[in-house]
Amino acid sequence: MTELPGAGMTELPGAGMTELRVLLVEDDVDHGFLIRRALRDLDDVRVTVDLARTGEEALELLGRGRFDSGALPHLVLLDLKVPRLDGLEVLRRIRADGDGAMRSLPVVVLTSSEREDDREQALRLGATWYVCKPIDGARFRAEVQQVAARWARARP
Question: Three-class SS of residue 95?
């Protein structure tokens, strides 16, 4: 995996820890478990994960945060193959946010789709990064941790 752009973390006073709020949009229970566990095990980062199992639920959670910038996540991890509203449409709506609060959110597509057209479309729609979920659990864990750690390091 290569260097990732952008970030979003705040350091907790006196604790030497940073805080990362993540919106995980994932309908697969096993993948959700692995991702949350990988995030939980990051060194020096306290991660809070809000889970949305559908695209509609993700937009609902983000919509509540629009009026309170402290409620928006620092990072969105988005699966493309979620029910009711697919990940590409969720991404399209995030980037179409008129007031800009959601538009600037880093959105990392974390998906099992290896289709090049999915990758190209996600990046064209404004995905910050695109990661294919590897079959190997240890590699998947390492990639999730690298994505989250990047945002943990880069926030002022």
Answer: helix
